[in-house]
Design brief:
Layout (H helix, E strand, L loop, with lengths): L12 E5 L3 E2 L5 E2 L2 E8 L9 E5 L38 E5 L14 E2 L4 E2 L9 H14 L5 E7 L1 H12 L4 E7 L7 H15 L17 H15 L2 H7 L18 H14 L4 H13 L10 H4 L6 E7 L7 H13 L4 E6 L13 H12 L5
Parallel strand pairs: 5-6, 5-9, 9-10, 10-11, 11-12
Antiparallel strand pairs: 1-4, 2-3, 4-6, 7-8
Helix pairs in contact: 1-2, 3-4, 3-7, 4-6
EC number: 2.3.1.46
Organism: Nitrogeniibacter mangrovi
Keywords: Acyltransferase, Amino-acid biosynthesis, Cytoplasm, Methionine biosynthesis, Transferase
């Protein structure tokens, strides 16, 4: 049996679009760029392409590493590559940084051609549907009329679902992992707390902090800390940190005492060092607004009637942010519409972040599903 391998050294690519993109918010981008990476080879029939959609803080860098940064490994490297569940010997895999992102695609930190200054607060709101539209234009430019599959976890799973509704004839299979048909009020609440941490940071300057040479670090740190709590399960936190005290005793201070405090502060500080505050705001609002059933009077069965793809839906038992019952809502609506749908509820203690991990049961499910996708 061949051992799984890395795709090795990869190189980001950039494509400029000059056809204006009308956005759901009423805004518009007259021109924009998308940064993307590809792994594997597109076959002669152009029938083996798989699009990987990223989550909130993800990017186009899905697998492999850069020549000048061997430790910068793609966020789903354990899933994509020769001999891995999404096998690049069979599939041509594409990762793209969403519009509004901060990894090279046009976003708030990009220069606005109309002003010669960073967009900042002037960058328009973007939606999941807008991302799908821009991804479809990228596919057109690459000569891909139909994807063998579109896959994503969390917010990426919502994009995969949206693809099947906006471009039903361009998707063979949709793999929707740790996702939801819409956010609960609790999830919107967590997002709002995180946004307020950024918006009220004195260094935010109404979104135009670039001109001041500062970063709203405090707000970003708090936003990430709040978000990170929701990504982990209580069991995972208990196993990893428990109530361990750094000094072995209570020192009665507001400095770091418990190991979980140290972990959250570390994650927050690291995140603030590389992620853009405006991108965080835009992306969480895109999450909040996603609701395919909204235009169907809340009827998810009616909303998913347009889908033609076959589906794999995966949830995790300890994911309390997007719990299994939310995935089962998607499955039920698809079955109502007589779609071919497979469902796996994976026992994994890691919570929402399980979709990023190398869990044997989870990867076994994905391998089995991708193996049965026919590519001609």
């Amino acid at each position: 049996m061949t051992q799984p391998q890395s795709v090795g050294v990869v190189t980001p690519q950039r494509l400029r679009f000059t056809e204006p993109l009308a956005l759901r918010s009423g805004g518009r981008l007259d021109e924009y760029e998308l940064v993307y990476e590809t792994y594997g080879e597109l076959n002669a029939a152009r029938s083996n392409a798989v699009l990987v959609c990223h989550a909130l803080s993800g990017s186009h860098h899905v697998a492999g590493h850069y020549a000048d940064a061997p430790n910068n490994i793609g966020w789903w490297d354990n899933l994509v590559g020769p001999g891995k569940p999404l096998d690049t010997r069979k599939f041509f895999v594409i990762g793209v940084n969403n519009l509004g992102g901060c990894y090279g695609s046009t976003g708030p930190a990009s220069v606005n051609p109309a002003t010669g200054q960073p967009y900042g607060a002037e960058f328009p709101f973007v939606s999941v549907e807008d991302w799908v539209e821009s991804q479809a234009r990228l596919a057109d430019a690459l000569g891909i009329e139909r994807f063998a599959a579109i896959v994503g976890g969390s917010l990426g799973g919502m994009q995969a679902l949206s693809w099947t509704l906006l471009y039903p004839d361009r998707v063979g299979h949709a793999v929707v992992i740790a996702a939801s048909p819409k956010l609960s009020a609790e999830n919107i609440a967590f997002n709002e707390v995180a946004r307020q941490a950024i918006l009220t940071d004195p260094d935010f300057h109404g979104g135009n902090f670039y001109a001041h040479g500062v970063v709203p670090e405090r707000g970003l740190k708090l936003a990430r800390m709040v978000g990170h709590i929701t990504y982990l399960s209580d069991d995972a936190m208990a196993e990893k940190f428990g109530r361990s005290l750094r000094h072995g005793k209570q020192v009665f201070s507001y400095d770091v005492e418990f190991e979980i405090e140290s972990y959250l502060r570390y994650q927050g500080k690291k995140f603030a060092g590389y992620f853009d505050a405006n991108t965080y705001l835009l992306t969480t609002k895109a999450l909040d607004y996603f609701d395919p059933a909204f235009e169907h009077a809340g009827n998810l069965n009616a909303a998913l009637a347009a889908a033609q793809a076959d589906f794999l839906v995966v949830s995790f038992t300890t994911d309390w942010r997007f719990p299994p019952e939310r995935s089962r809502e998607i499955v039920s609506a698809l079955m109502h519409n007589r779609r071919h749908v497979s469902y796996a509820e994976v026992e994994c203690a890691a919570g929402h972040d399980s979709f990023l991990l190398d869990d044997a049961q989870y990867h076994g499910v994905l391998s089995a599903y991708f193996d049965r996708i026919e590519v001609r």
